[in-house]
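Annex B. Sample input.
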Amino acid sequence: MKQLKGLLPGKISARPIWIILFLIGLGVLDRSIATLQIDQWWFSSLGYLQNWQRQIQAKTWLAILGSSLSGLWLVANYIYSKRWQAENPALSLGVPLTALPLADQQPPPSRLVILLTLSIATGIFTAAATLYPLWAIWPLPKIFWFWPVIMISCSIGTILRPLPAIAPLIVATSMGWGYFWAHHWQQVLPAFAATSFQQREPVFDRDIGFYVFQLPLQELADQFALSLSLAALAITTLIYLRPHISDGWIGKLPLHQHRHLAFLAGAVAWSIAQHFSLARYQLLYSQRGAVYGAGYADLWGYLPIYNLLLVVNCIIGIICWLWALGIWRLTGRLAGFWRIPRRFWLPLLGSGSLLLSLPLLIQRGIVSPNELAIEKPYIKHNIAFTRQAFALDQIDIKTFDPSGKLTAPDIANNQATIKNIRLWDARPLLQSNRQLQQIRPYYRFINADIDRYPINNDLQQVILSAREIDSQSLTEKAQTWINRHLVYTHGYGFTVSPVNRAAPGGLPDYLVKDIGNSKLPVPAPAISVAEPRIYYGEITDNYTFAPSAVPELDYPQGNDNTYNSYSGQGGITMDSWWRRWIGARYLQDWEVLFTKNFTPKTQLLLHRSIVDRVQKLAPWLLLDQDPYLAIAKSTQTKTNHLYWILDGYTTSDHYPYSDPGRGQFNYIRNSVKISIDAYDGSAQFYVSDEQDPILKTWRKIRPQMWQPMKNMPLSLRSHLRYATDLFQVQSDRLRTYHMQDPQVFYNREDLWQIPQEIYGGKSQAVQPYYVITKLPTASDEEFLLLSPFTPNQRTNLIAWLAARSDGEQYGRLLLYQFPKQQLVYGTEQIESLIDQDPAISQQIGLWNRQGMSAVKGNLLVIPIESSLLYVEPLYLEAQQNSLPTLGRVIVVYRDRISMAETLNQALQNIFPTGSKS
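Annex B, continued. Sample output.
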């Protein structure tokens, strides 16, 4: 053994490790202080300081509690194990762990190989258990490069020099678990403020609120307990084995060491028991049966196994703890157990295998031969709970029989619908905007939003597009710090164009256009604004300082530029050296500290991306991917301002029996509407669903954050629209879950699909679209979001879903189903009729041969009276320097097809004045 000792380092100092940890901690603390201070100022500037303070308090207490519990547990076990490490082997229990001889005649290199192999194997287990909290938060690829290094270092260091290796490991583990709990504060707080769903699931008869709020916390606690138990057991085992390994053999362990290990083994057993207890509830999210959720095989196969394993681990835990307390000494019985004749082992293993295969046997032998009859109750559960979770049970279902005959008088009587048929899609309009209205390369039109405004005393559907700043598009020489953060600070203005017509030459017919001319005289006061500057938008993700000694670019005008200074209150004041130093440290930008261009009024404008801004204020909300711009009257200035409206969703992936489909959640509500002033960044959160239990819970946690919908200004409320992401999710779920009969659902007899259309020469699914039309059961036109459906693997229309957005009808869904015995043309069939029309196909071929491309736009299905009208715009684009123009409009009614330069001409061709049908 002396030869082996010569191969190992005689002394390893802990001082370098502690110095490195101290320096790392100092750097992290320095940045953390700056971050906390900036966050405090930022939340205070928006009026949400109290919400931030409660959030920090919660994260701090969770970090302290998680670190303290894990640290005390690991330190206590480490101290206890070190105390009994050198106990007299004569007091051993007499049960050898194993016999791994390292005889003196064995060559030293072989001893070293065995020693290092054992230490690395044990150390990897130790490192994996202790580093679990960080691995559970950070995806493995982000830390993969140092993961093997940490494991091997901990393995070898622990076996060679326990104190320098284990102590930092315990500290890192404790801090990791503190960060783990602080990171999951959004799961912890709702568990203590949970709101009942007033709905119970049928298997365990528990309120849905338990699964949405308490179960996620219990799952985190189970991970915490199991990981720490395994870590303590691994570290303690390694400490107890080390003296024996150093002597070259592993023999009997002393009595107190056995008891300590038995106590830790009991803790592991109880943690595993808790895991199986929670696994029972996880059966409600099973995907093994005929439908999503617990099926027959789950409840009669897996559930008994989980209950048995739960009981077995509880018994093992009790036995281990009794043994650890010295109340029940099982030495003889355990020894007798290991002496069971081998002929009994095979039956025991066979019984265990048979038990584990019980669910498969039940599925194959009982369920599969008569699956519908056996699974019928569980199919009902799946249908009912999925419809509840996605609010499909709130859809009004009506029959729409498009057998009526449209006439010219019908067209004349529905001019509000005709004048709002959308001929301009977002893609060609944005292309035209970027060519005609972008003005300078540092401006960008990132999106186009559909809305409605009163123009000439009529409600007109229009497209708004904001002109935002993009400082990244500056030329390379202009990419200076002053330009990026002091001069090019904001976008300017927007464009407004009606959806139903084009200007001469086919270009968009702008109601608002050109930079610096955003005010429009009467008759369109609703789309004029007093403050057209956009400091907060969809792509403004850089920080700026305004106002400063450097004038801010407003917009170019002729050979000169127009400048302005920010006068809003949406930022952090940089009026002292302390604030500038904190800002420089937070931004890691030391120009902030040394620039001479700041004034006492200069503010740091942070989180200018509206999505980033809202996520910072309410990180538990899922946001719609399509924020939209609205013009509304400010309650302070009584003049029109630009506002961004975002839809916020409360979601959960723990709603029992609810099928998430292709999504990552199985419950969703559009419970929040958020408005953000594009100039000063002020954000308001309005409650749009008072009945949502998840939002009720967050209102308990953050009571000062929310406002009732009645507090939203009427001018802003009139521009709310049904959220597109929610509508798409509901439409996707409705494809299957409109079937409520279990047998029809099981056989998928009436499965629907989203129809296809030809757009830009490519086939794509029809996207939901906004229209202004009059529903068959309504007396007036209203703003609707529509989506058609076709039967699975068929192309005829079977139904269409309408979401209402106006007044008291906001949020209501109507499903109009067509008679199944009647053919109603679908979008693909209409596309085929258009392609087969000789005049249309000849004209398109002629354009394509003249160096242009004829591009089909969105095919819209417009309900009018008791009929359906199909309208498709046709855009002409040059093959080089494309500037899309509205070339033609195609209208289809039944078997009649017309292509003309304007919508009115195409309608006149199909419904000539004086005709009856």
